[in-house]
């Protein structure tokens, strides 16, 4: 965990230092001092660093939120394929925001966040209900298939809602890719209370998730209120996913990859796995953002594209595992 914190600090420094413009370290230090002390920007290099600082902070928060949400969803559903993107939660939040923009003319950051959280919650419940139908209940394969079908359907609905509105179509399509560009402290301030609530609920659910991992009957025998434990933990994941999607757009696969890496390094105890997933998610999203700035210079690749390249092979590998139905 200490090593991960050190890696995260190094990635934050690289995120501030690396971009389309090469900036001397003296200007980077001066820009950081200006941000802390409220000084004036002296040159274009310091101005560029001033833009990168909120971008770095947003990538850190969004990555931590999605990594933690993925670990919570996998714990709640006991499904190794659970992920905000694969289960359709991110796309449900996207559809809610698109409907709010196109039909109700919402424009405030608070309205975006509320709409995204409601959409994420409704989508999560819908996918879980569909995946629970038939014999065997909510198996990993059924949930993955239900989530994939829901994501495709909601993605088509987003296009259908936005297509007649040429005035908003470009912005919504760009937002749907998923990215942290254009971040400002004002946008982060609006989303911070929702993220803080999601982090608190999620991290405090670690003991309950350990009980749920034993099975519903054994958890109930140990005195755990299974339905309440599952609902509270899921609420934390929905808050994290909805708030992150509202400000960054849907970013897929990060919540799938990070918890599995965490299990390899710190085991299955959620008291360790949840904070590790949050730190690992922040590291992965920061690294993806840095890579996106480097490989397409002077243009940039949004982090949603980079994480898809990383996460898709991992998802295919997991599906092809022979014993995935037993996890």
Salient structural properties:
transmembrane helix; mainly alpha; membrane; ABC_BtuC-like; ABC transporter involved in vitamin B12 uptake, BtuC; 327 residues; cell membrane; 14 helices
Task: Provide a descriptive summary of the structure in words.
With 327 residues, the protein is mostly helical. The chain has one domain: Orthogonal Bundle (ABC transporter involved in vitamin B12 uptake, BtuC), CATH 1.10.3470.10. The longest helix is centred in the N-terminal third of the chain and has 34 residues. Its main location: membrane. It is found in: Cell membrane. Keywords: Cell membrane, Membrane, Transmembrane, Transmembrane helix, Transport.
Helix percentage range: over 70%
Coarse structural class: mainly alpha
Annotation, overall tally of beta strands: 0
Q: Using the CA coordinates, give the radius of gyration.
A: 20 Å
- Total helices: the number is 14
CATH topology: ABC transporter involved in vitamin B12 uptake, BtuC
Per DSSP, what share of the residues sits in E-state strands of 2 or more residues?
Answer: under 5%
CATH superfamily: ABC transporter involved in vitamin B12 uptake, BtuC
Low-confidence stretches: none
Biggest β-sheet description:
none
Shape: globular
Number of spatially distinct domains: 1
Sketch the topology as an H/E string, one letter per element: HHHHHHHHHHHHHH
Mean pLDDT: 87
- Write down the CATH class: Mainly Alpha
Span from first to last CA?
A: 25 Å
Q: Any guess at the CATH architecture?
A: Orthogonal Bundle
């Amino acid at each position: 965990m200490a090593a991960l914190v050190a890696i995260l600090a190094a990635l934050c420094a690289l995120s501030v230092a690396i971009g389309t413009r090469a900036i001397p370290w003296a200007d980077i230090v001066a820009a950081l001092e200006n941000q802390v002390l409220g000084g004036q920007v002296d040159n274009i290099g310091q101005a560029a660093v001033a833009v990168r600082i909120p971008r770095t902070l947003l990538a850190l928060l969004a990555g931590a939120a999605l990594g933690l949400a993925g670990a919570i969803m996998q714990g709640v559903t006991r499904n190794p394929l659970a992920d905000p993107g694969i289960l359709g939660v991110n796309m449900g939040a996207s559809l809610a925001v698109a409907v709010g923009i196109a039909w109700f003319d919402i424009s405030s950051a608070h309205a975006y966040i509320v709409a995204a959280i409601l959409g994420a919650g409704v989508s999560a419940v819908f996918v879980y209900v569909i995946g629970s139908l038939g014999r065997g209940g909510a198996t990993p394969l059924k949930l993955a298939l239900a989530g994939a079908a829901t994501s495709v359907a909601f993605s088509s609905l987003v296009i259908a809602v936005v297509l007649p509105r040429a005035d908003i179509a470009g912005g919504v399509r760009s937002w749907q890719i998923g990215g942290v560009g254009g971040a400002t402290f004002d946008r982060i301030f609006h989303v911070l209370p929702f993220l803080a609530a999601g982090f608190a609920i999620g991290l405090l659910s670690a003991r309950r998730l350990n009980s749920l991992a034993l099975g519903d009957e054994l958890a109930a025998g140990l005195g755990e209120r299974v339905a309440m434990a599952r609902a509270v933990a899921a609420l934390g994941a929905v808050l994290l996913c909805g708030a992150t999607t509202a400000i960054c757009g849907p970013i897929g696969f990060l919540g799938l990859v990070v918890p599995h890496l965490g299990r390899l390094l710190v085991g299955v105890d959620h008291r360790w796995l949840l904070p590790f997933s949050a730190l690992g998610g922040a590291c992965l999203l920061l690294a993806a953002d840095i890579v996106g700035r480097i490989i397409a210079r002077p243009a940039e690749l949004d982090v949603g594209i980079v994480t898809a390249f990383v996460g898709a092979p991992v998802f295919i590998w997991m599906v092809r595992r022979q014993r995935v139905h037993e996890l």
